[in-house]
Design a protein that fits this description.
Elements: H1 4-8, E1 10-11, E2 14-15, H2 32-55, H3 57-73, H4 82-88
Antiparallel strand pairs: 1-2
Helix pairs in contact: 2-3
Length: 89
């Protein structure tokens, strides 16, 4: 015979399963090798993009104009430059 405490958490003798929403749907087996390769690919593509921007007069003019527009609109000015950041790192 079940008591009231036992029947509160059960239906037809089966216990309710609780789902941990923080773990549900999250891939837990992450290979660090795959992550490192992906980060490396992203960095390589970013460096290629910045090299292309530096070599193209039109793209450089566009980036500089956008940079100037953002600096006029914001109180926090952008002090970095794409070509200088890539050379130093």
């Amino acid at each position: 015979m079940e008591t009231d405490n036992e029947t509160l958490g059960s239906e037809d003798g089966k216990e309710d399963e609780t789902n941990d929403n923080l773990v549900e749907g999250v891939i837990q087996d992450v290979s660090t090798v795959g992550v490192e390769e992906t980060v490396g690919e992203v960095l390589f593509k970013c460096r290629q993009l910045i090299t292309m921007i530096r070599k193209s007069t039109m793209l450089t003019a566009f980036v500089n104009a956008t940079h100037a527009e953002i600096n006029q609109a914001k109180t926090n000015k952008i002090t970095r430059n794409l070509s200088l950041d890539v050379r130093n790192r």
